[in-house]
Design a protein that fits this description.
The chain has ten helices and 15 strands. Helix 4 packs parallel to helix 5 (105-118) and helix 8 packs across helix 10 (307-326). The chain folds into two domains: 8-126, Rossmann fold; 129-285 and 313-331, 2-Layer Sandwich (Dihydrodipicolinate Reductase, domain 2), CATH 3.30.360. The protein is globular, with a radius of gyration of 20 Å. Helices cover 35% and strands 27% of the residues. By secondary structure, it is an alpha/beta fold. Helix 2 (42-52) links the parallel strand 2 (32-38) and strand 3. It has helices at residues 17-27, 42-52, 60-64, 81-90, 105-118, 132-142, 172-175, 178-194, 284-297, 307-326; strands at 8-13, 32-38, 55-57, 71-74, 94-98, 122-125, 149-159, 198-206, 218-225, 230-239, 245-253, 257-260, 267-270, 275-278, 330-331. The strands form three sheets. It has a seven-stranded mixed sheet, with helices on one face. Strands 3-2-1-4-5-6 form a six-stranded parallel sheet, sandwiched between helices.
Length: 336
């Protein structure tokens, strides 16, 4: 709600796949409502606007000219994030940027500085922070049940989810590579659970789907921390079958271990194509993410994750891509 008790007016830029998750979460919100969408495909924007009963525009300028839009969720390809972030914040709107915050460390800081200068909420869509399992692990760590975290292992392997060979995700000039597109999620979780920024990264990758790929669809990042702690982050999008999914989370502390194994999915359904969980859980993750963003926009809470952590995730990812190119361990400056 805004100060006068009316729901916060939200606009969405880009109506592709990830925007659908945000729209679904907005339908459950009592503190905000979708008032406008825009997309470079104006016809698609109009179609979505009709379905969502909101305004539809063919440009960001038009959306930002709509006084009903008080906050914006940007759901566009990675190479657009810095420019759109500055544009949205410059127009005085609170911003939830889908990860990564930007394609470069410098770009991430430019967007963050714009938000700080204007006193606006800037959140980044590190949605994995809001899952049941991630929150449970952080609660256990905060309670001191495993002592001081010393090692984390985050494994998220899955099938070929990108739409095809012409997808922008497969062009490193547009996506930044796998480290920036998906690796930021894992790096953020590892740093969050260890409780400090990473200071180094060494990465190895494979072209698991095809040697013709320009990005490494299988990626392992080894993170080092100033305290001597370490983490291994493994992510793949080249598994078979296409809808396969494997998740493993481990945090080793000085006094205990937290482990979330693949069989923690609960009831599993085996089909001709894959195995998938049947646990009855709703789409709580994006609802939580949006609730946290709206609370920050209202000045009732700090953004989650902190902007410094979102910048640090970009720093790690950029260093990871450099490590992939050079075969060396890359040092990372302290986040700020």
């Amino acid at each position: 709600m805004t100060e006068n008790g009316t729901p916060l007016g939200v606009g969405i830029v880009g109506v592709g796949g990830i925007a659908l998750s945000h729209m679904a979460a907005l339908r459950e919100s009592t503190s905000a409502r979708l008032v406008a969408v825009c997309d470079v495909d104006a016809a698609r924007a109009a179609e979505v606007a009709h379905a969502e009963r909101c305004a539809g525009y063919g440009s960001v300028d038009e959306l930002l000219a709509d006084d009903a839009v008080e906050a914006v969720i940007v759901c566009t390809p990675n190479m657009t994030h810095e420019q759109l972030g500055v544009q949205v914040l410059g127009a005085g709107r609170h911003l939830l940027m889908e990860k990564p915050l930007a394609m470069t460390s410098e770009g991430a800081r430019v967007v963050a500085d714009e938000a700080a200068a204007r006193g606006l909420a800037l959140a980044v869509g590190h949605s994995h922070r809001f899952t049941d399992q991630s929150l449970a692990i952080r609660d256990i760590i905060d309670a001191g049940d495993i002592g001081e975290p010393r090692f984390a292992r985050v494994v998220m392997n899955g099938g070929w989810i990108w739409p095809g060979w012409q997808s922008w995700v497969l062009n490193p000039e547009l996506s930044g590579g796998h480290s920036l597109h998906n690796g930021v999620h894992l790096a953020d979780l590892a740093s969050w659970w260890i409780g400090e920024p990473a200071t180094s990264v060494f990465s190895v990758g494979q072209h698991a789907t095809s040697e013709a790929l320009q990005i490494h669809d299988y990626l392992v990042m080894e993170l080092g921390f100033a305290s001597g702690a370490s983490a291994v982050c493994e992510i793949s999008r080249g598994e078979r079958p296409r809808s396969a999914s494997y998740l493993e989370l481990t945090v080793v502390g000085s006094d205990g271990v937290i482990s979330r194994a693949w069989d923690a999915e609960g009831v599993l359904a085996w089909t001709d194509n894959s195995a998938w969980g049947v646990d009855g859980a709703g789409p709580r993750t994006f609802v939580r993410e949006l609730d946290a963003f709206f609370a920050a926009a209202r000045g009732e809470a700090e953004v989650v994750p902190p902007v410094s952590a979102a910048i640090h995730a970009v720093d790690i990812a950029v260093a990871s891509e450099e490590s992939l190119r050079t075969g060396r361990t890359i040092e990372i400056g302290a986040r700020g």
